[in-house]
Amino acid sequence: MSQSGRTFLTTPIYYASGEPHIGHAYTTILTDVLARFARQSGEDVLFLTGTDEHGPKIQQEAEQRGVTPQELCDTMAERFGSAWERLGISHDRFIRTTEGEHKAVVTAFLERLWDRGEVYRGAYTGWYCIHEERYWTEKDLGPDETCPDCGRPVTHLEETNYFFRMSAYQDALVAHIEENPDWIVPDIRRNEILGFLRQPLSDLSISRPKSRVSWGIDLPFDSDHVAYVWVDALINYLTASGAIDPSSPPEERGFEDVSGSWWPADMHVIGKDILTTHSVYWPTLLMGVGLPLPRRILAHGWWVVGDTKMSKSLGNVIDPMALTAEFGSDAVRWYLLREMPTGGDASYTPERFLTRYDELANVLGNLASRATSMIVKYRDGRVPSVGGTGLADEIATTLESIRGDLDQLKVHAALGAAMDLARSANVYVEERAPWSQSKDPAQAEELDETLATLARALTVLCALFQPVTPNAMHELAGRLGLDGVPTIAHSTSVVLGGRSVAKGDPLFPKIEPSWATTDGT
Ligand code: MSP
């Protein structure tokens, strides 16, 4: 993925005010799958996720629950952490914005902006939506003074704020986007930002008076104000990269030279709702302190339910943990990543979930079960030591197309190609009819070749599916007598002849969904 052999991937940090839902799960699993593919190709990976813990939204939620903001954040960080564990997320670092190290990096960042003359004090008059944590001008508002994004009532504000001279970086940002066509993926999002940048860019308010918002990081140049939660949150990526050493004197903190750290990030994976903050605020702030920009931003689409937006008030939020409890994390991971075209939108329906689960069970699971059973039955559980090249062309073509899909960040297509290989292997079984070959001693060599080919196909599939269904592939590797899931590159050449194969329970067992009994679907 990167040229240095090191890849730094990030998810957004999730607000510590609500429960993890299917949208958060999707972003995190998408990043996890990219991280696992990168590790499988030999990259050293830093995969970062975490929680966004400051600002009025957290302050208000804590008040409503009758706990302190810190108590709320401790509870929710734990909830996100355990959700990610149950979903098999392989992050290397879980950052919390209330950590001392992060606070110190935010302070150093703001100090640097201040010292470089990038910040001025001014008056702010306008509207604010706490739910979205963002400002609106009068003309943006929906009917009856509501937020145009979420429809909730907005608050009128008149206060002193500190502003970052974001407008000064408009031309540099437009030039960067135009010179780097792959910087924002997909194109539709890149065009959206270029369209937005056709209007003059305003300066960015980066502070809140403590009289209104006390739950935040103090500004180093005015302790009556705290940092705007988005500025605080975006800096998490830099904190985790280890580029900045806030305890050193200002000129030695690492702003001049990030070598040896993970900065710049190779990719920020986000939802399309937070594109402006990541592709306008964040890069201009980085320009303001003189740091390199992240290498790529992948903005994925939106999960809706049927054709309705998911929302707490409609009571239609899909709980990824309930699905996981019923079907296992591999099934949820597969469904979410296979069903949503990376970058596009998708709709959750229970029917599609079951169709995707059946695909796992009937194509991949069935292949694994047939192939291992036949090796056990016809060859006493030993993989025959012969070529096993029956599907070599299909394997080569699949690996090639998966490489192309991943380069273009089309994860759904890469997974689709892997499933097609399993389909081809099932067709191969039908064509070779090993059950007939086994009855005719004259076809012993053909049967050896059939079984060795199937062992090879399963080994390659084990590597290809590992990023998305890691539990089942770990199990499959064991049944194939491998010493763990091979890398994709190694899967075509690892010696299989003589390995001892075991059969076992279905990798993806038949499950009667709990909802079938209530609404008949
Ligand atoms: N805290 C900010 C992000 C700060 S990053 C420096 C935030 N948090 S959030 O909890 O609201 O999470 C937003 C992210 O969750 C979205 O960008 C997206 O990745 C994911 N999703 C939330 N709902 C979603 C859907 N319905 N569908 C797909 N993903 C969505 O914003």
CATH class of the largest domain: Alpha Beta
Instruction: List cofactors, ions and other ligands.
Output: 5'-O-[(L-methionyl)-sulphamoyl]adenosine
Taken together, the total number of domains comes to 2
Structural class: alpha/beta
Mean pLDDT: 95
**Strand arrangement, major sheet:** 3-2-1-12-13-7
CATH architecture of the largest domain: 3-Layer(aba) Sandwich
Q: How much helicity do the residues have?
A: 40-55%
Taking the sheet with the most strands, its summary is: 6 strands, parallel
CATH topology of the largest domain: Rossmann fold
DSSP summary: helix tally: 19
Based on DSSP secondary structure assignment, what is the total number of beta strands? 16
- The shape, in one word, is elongated
Over the alpha carbons, how many angstroms does the gyration radius reach?
A: 26 Å
Q: Determine the N-to-C terminus distance.
A: 42 Å
Proportion of residues in β-strands: 15-25%
Q: Please name the fourth-level CATH homologous superfamily of the largest domain.
A: HUPs
Low-confidence stretches: 517-521
